[in-house]
Amino acid sequence: xxxxxxxxxxxxxxxxxxxxxxxxxxxxxxxxxxxxxxxxxxxxxxxxxxxxxxxxxxxxxxxxxxxxxxxxxxxxxxxxxxxxxxxxxxxxxxxxxxxxxxxxxxxxxxxxxxxxxxxxxxxxxxxxxxxxxxxxxxxxxxxxxxxxxxxxxxxxxxxxxxxxxxxxxxxxxxxxxxxxxxxxxxxxxxxxxxxxxxxxxxxxxxxxxxxxxxxxxxxxxxxxxxxxxxxxxxxxxxxxxxxxxxxxxxxxxxxxxxxxxxxxxxxxxxxxxxxxxxxxxxxxxxxxxxxxxxxxxxxxxxxxxxxxxxxxxxxxxxxxxxxxxxxxxxxxxxxxxxxxxxxxxxxxxxxxxxxxxxxxxxxxxxxxxxxxxxxxxxxxxxxxxxxxxxxxxxxxxxxxxxxxxxxxxxxxxxxxxxxxxxxxxxxxxxxxxxxxxxxxxxxxxxxxxxxxxxxxxxxxxxxxxxxxxxxxxxxxxxxxxxxxxxxxxxxxxxxxxxxxxxxxxxxxxxxxxxxxxxxxxxxxxxxxxxxxxxxxxxxxxxxxxxxxxxxxxxxxxxxxxxxxxxxxxxxxxxxxxxxxxxxxxxxxxxxxxxxxxxxxxxxxxxxxxxxxxxxxxxxxxxxxxxxxxxxxxxxxxxxxxxxxxxxxxxxxxxxxxxxxxxxxxxxxxxxxxxxxxxxxx
Length: 681
Description:
By secondary structure, the protein is of the alpha+beta class. The chain is built from 12 helices and 23 strands. Among the domains are: 3-181, Sandwich (Lipoxygenase-1), CATH 2.60.60; 480-656. It has helices at 156-163, 169-185, 262-267, 269-277, 321-363, 371-412, 480-500, 522-527, 537-560, 589-601, 626-631, 665-680, and strands at residues 3-5, 10-12, 17-35, 47-48, 54-55, 58-59, 65-73, 83-89, 107-112, 117-122, 131-140, 143-153, 206-207, 210-211, 437-444, 453-458, 464-468, 506-511, 575-583, 607-613, 632-635, 640-644, 651-656. The strands form 4 sheets. Strands 1, 2, 3, 4, 5, 6, 7, 8, 9, 10, 11 and 12 form a 12-stranded mixed beta sheet that branches. A 5-stranded parallel beta sheet has the order 18-19-20-17-21, sandwiched between helices. The chain has a 4-stranded antiparallel beta sheet with strand order 16-15-23-22. A hairpin with a 2-residue loop joins strand 5 (54-55) and strand 6. Helix 9 (537-560) packs parallel to helix 10.
């Protein structure tokens, strides 16, 4: 469990490659200082900030935002560095709050690269301060620890840097403020969701029916966690300025950046119009979420003189190609979310201004009728159409750039991230290592239906999956075909999970009480990918649930006893995916309780759940099963708009990742998986 720190408290770090995530209610500037053993920062070249975002072992954001992710590799820090201080400051820009006491308490969290939160600290009690040292990561007797600092400075960045011993601190503070202001002018104004995330998870995006790596649960429609994420697990918590790394995190997992809410836009129409009309800059492909990783740089295309650099696959932060692609996909997801938010905000403002101008024209009896009134109404409509047109042009430009990036990225994705029609599957070989994430489908928005963003979720799965076999359009039509398609979706997901794990490290079991899913399950059963035939009848349900429940119990006892290796001989230690078809048919009360137990406790013990069910079929149990449904990530066998991102709350349309009609790719991949497992035995 993550440590919740108070001011002055420290906590050991169990890993040296970490992320420090900052979330605030308003845009803030984030930076970091590298100090010696005495705590002194010996030069400006030991300060990472928007104007100089990268130092050895350290990378921060280039712009002010409500969420930041600071990447830290403690092993790569210079030998003389013993302390790393994380700082935030309110930007010195018009309209920015003058002190932290006037905004929501910022929150900082230290996470591993998988989004797992190690320690967190909420900066309460701030008042007149405009700059704060949030955390300190320090070396003690060869080990690294993190300490909650919370030291504020009413004199701002200049006072903070002076206190840290930085030479010419006032000059450096002015340079940081100028760099942050330049970065803010290139950001897209958006409507933001609540940024105070309470739990981790990387690319996650979280919600009642979805948890992607990196995102925290919020009220409203389903959210992808961290990322995922995510959408991505969206598993979430504080997030990175610019592009996320969920959650997690469909999901995200996470982190909303700064921007204007729609309410604020209506209160300040002039500012909103200016922001909208000036959003003519192209998407900046040096976005903080796409920083180059330490080590070999990602390949770069020549920069044309008359436009932005052509997109490059893997143009994001990360220590491997896979990690860079993962972060790049999440970055594309957030860029599209924010660009669409800017467009929708502009349209809302244009409509509200039109209404105000029409009301004003009609409020004066002398000009209510006649040619003057007609001219005023026509002029108001023309202004509204111009605003919407300019906003649409900006959105179309951004979508075109993201589409070009997608066309470069999609063919370069590894199997775990690729669609089934990607040629990468033609050369498939059983991997030696599992990936960091897996693709569960695609997401898109109505303003850009042709642009699909992969829904990547961190592995191992932190939440079970639920494929909703009920009718989603309210018509109640088609039970048989939809249920068959739901099982096909489950098979495609199971095949992908089997394919991306090393031989013997992932197994699939199926419960099909009535045998009604036999035809759709044929790719699994016919290739020998299953370790045992699907369990049928009450006896089969009881036996399968009993074995998996016992496995979870044994693993938990071993872990709690401090002897994780002391498991019974012969116990299958591979991760297990249990597919339950047509739930809750064939389940008695005891079986239902066992299934709930597996959903709650199974992931930590290597047992994951995938339900194929219509929630309406479980109404006989009343509210008993509501916690079960809420604990699962809801997916659909047909396109359905039910996932929301963690930044601006758009409802995204989810599409499952299915093999093309007539393709034999599933059978070919599953056959190789079965052969590799047999050779390993």
